[in-house]
Amino acid sequence: MIRTTPTTSAASPALRTLRKALLRPTMTLSVPSTRAASTLRSNNNSNSRSTRKQLTSTRQQSIFSRPSTASTSSLTHRTFASIADATPEQQAEADPLLTEPREADEVDVAIVGGGPAGLAAAIRLKQLDNEHGSGELRVVVLEKAPEMGAHTLSGAVLEPRALDELFGPEWRDEPPEAITLVKNETMRYLTKSAAIPIPEPPQMHNAGKNYIVSLNLVVKWLAEKAEELGVEIYPGFSVSELVYDEETGAVKGIATNDMGVSKNFEPKDNFQRGMEFHAKATLLAEGCHGSLTKQVIKNFNLRKESDPQTYGIGIKEVWEVPEEVWDEGFVAHTMGHPLSYNTYGGGFMYHFGERLVSVGLVVGLDYANPYISPYQEFQNLKRHPFYKRVLEKGKCVSYGARALNEGGLQSIPKLSFPGGALIGCTAGFLNVPKIKGTHTAMKSGMLAAEAAFAELQKAAAETEEAAEEEESAEETSEEAAEEEEEDGASAPWKPLSLESYEQSLKDSWVYKELYEVRNVRPSFNTRLGLFAGVAWSGLDTLLFKGRVPFTFHNKVTDAAHTQDASKFKPIDYPKPDGVVTFDLLTSVSRTGTNHDDDEPCHLRVPEQDLDRHAKAAWPKYKGVEQRFCPAGVYEYIPDETKELGVRFQINSQNCIHCKTCDIKVPTQDINWTVPEGGDGPKYYMT
Ligand SMILES: Cc1cc2nc3c(=O)[nH]c(=O)nc-3n(C[C@H](O)[C@H](O)[C@H](O)COP(=O)(O)OP(=O)(O)OC[C@H]3O[C@@H](n4cnc5c(N)ncnc54)[C@H](O)[C@@H]3O)c2cc1C
Ligand code: SF4
């Protein structure tokens, strides 16, 4: 039976106090907060080991009582995003504060990313621990959003299969806010002015079984459940580095980003060195195209036997609409207009909550024409009568965008690496024809949690056995034991292997459902585009159900699909009407996004040489970056003083963390890295 009784409810107020304190970047020593932190620890793990207490108290000191350290150091070549990326010379030149050793906390499992996958993993771990273990397992979730859910953007129609497995059907007794059962649905092919009903593929069927949700509210709800079970959740912490074990090369944990670093890479008054979490297992749950995931895939060659990942960008708004056009529980999916036959994608409209409508467009990032603007295509979608009729008397309350995986089964990398594993969309479990990835993300997290728990139990049993053997052989003298205790020496760190997660995923319904649809998305990649795709998908999903002896492959990255601008004509998109369509900056203002002006730019090009990037990209792609970015971060500004006649500019403050630039830039020289924790969008109802 799944245990849902709160085991650590007493810890929650303390946790909240600690979190508030940690989120205040300019905070100086505050006694109540420090006390709150130690209360948190002792409440959370009443039998905590003394080493942990020691680490915790040094950590509190480091975070809460660092003296003001305005630095006068001058660093000449500040071209790195984090000190870890700097050359040895740059490191030597940097302010010593930036390179001083970080405090480290020891936990059992560290989870990077508090989305559906990370939280499902954390919940499953604590359920198992509370039922079959000591109840003291330390499971930590680090999330870059300022509060849980604030970086979550989805459609979203939620298939409840994983939720049912995690909590039992009883979760419906106290469900997340604004959840709405799908009542009726339609699939339409849009011409410029008509919306022609077309048959719905069986996997798209939602009515009576799936729910329309705001995934950011679902995430908040999941975080509360996780806290009740004893998971330690830290929003407002960007994880910028993986910590590797020197001896084995395995991932030994993670490090959070330094706070209070100026854009010139100098520590400011509020500087706080990042913190390490050393873990027996590290789960990366960063969502689509995770920045640390990119590193582990490379470092451990995890994509050796899989195709490149391919992506789409989803752009979405939430509207409040009048009663007369609102149809509670209505779901619509559209194909065709505004996208051309050779651009993959489609629109959606979901009526949910209290007179709320989610409307959005997904555009496959394998488009060839660099003049396409997914943002402007979305505006065109809303101009269509099928959408306009619902929106024109309403009010847009939210805007956002996020990349999603489209590569399917053949693009999933190896899931485990020494010391950890990839879970959720960072590995790529989205079912493309369904446009659903939340249920598969959650299930993968739960399976990884089960594998980790089994390995932790095994390791604990082995340690106990070894200790008993040692004792019975009377090899350890009393003095030696005392010495060991004084030194605080403990068993050497050993990476856990999560290989068994790989197998349990293969045996699960996640694999089965992705296997069945593996050929659907790649079938749109022929010269016949939409027409061949629709024909093949119909046959495959209705008749073959994936039982064909071949698999279509994704051979080329989305960046490489982009073609020379000289082959296309610029697209003249209409001006916004301010009623259903908006200019980009008005939309960005609805994301609540914010990044400190005086922090290192988190969008990295080599040596931050913007002219070099412009020289490589502008002549061929004529400003593709300013069109694919849904937040106006990249600009080419006319500038006579430049050889190209334009100056490339990065307005990193506007970034909404969708990751599209890192994926689509044809020159592949933009690297999205995490900004300071708590920066970025503050999504509402998305
Ligand atoms: C437009 C759109 C429509 C969609 N529609 C649907 C739908 O209708 N139904 C459905 O089931 N699915 C849908 N999906 C997919 C669904 O949103 C994802 O499958 C799901 O969110 C994946 O969960 P996740 O936990 O793996 O990743 P995410 O939800 O992306 O969560 C990852 C979390 O990790 C955090 N993070 C990332 N890196 C770091 C770091 N280094 N340090 C700290 N924190 C970090 C992020 O801030 C984020 O909170 C849609 C997606 C999009 C974009
Ligand atoms: S800069 Fe990159 S990650 Fe940020 S909003 Fe633009 S495309 Fe998305």
From TrEMBL:
Residues 35-49 have a biased composition (Low complexity). The keyword Transmembrane helix does not apply. Its cofactor is [4Fe-4S] cluster; FAD. This is Electron transfer flavoprotein-ubiquinone oxidoreductase. Gene3D superfamilies: 3.30.70.20, 3.30.9.90, FAD/NAD(P)-binding domain. It holds the Pfam family NAD_binding_8. It is an enzyme of class 1 (oxidoreductase). The keyword rRNA-binding does not apply. Residues 53-75 have a biased composition (Polar residues). Residues 27-75, 83-102, 459-494 are annotated as: Disordered. It catalyses: a ubiquinone + reduced [electron-transfer flavoprotein] = a ubiquinol + oxidized [electron-transfer flavoprotein] + H(+). It comes from Magnusiomyces paraingens. Belongs to the ETF-QO/FixC family.
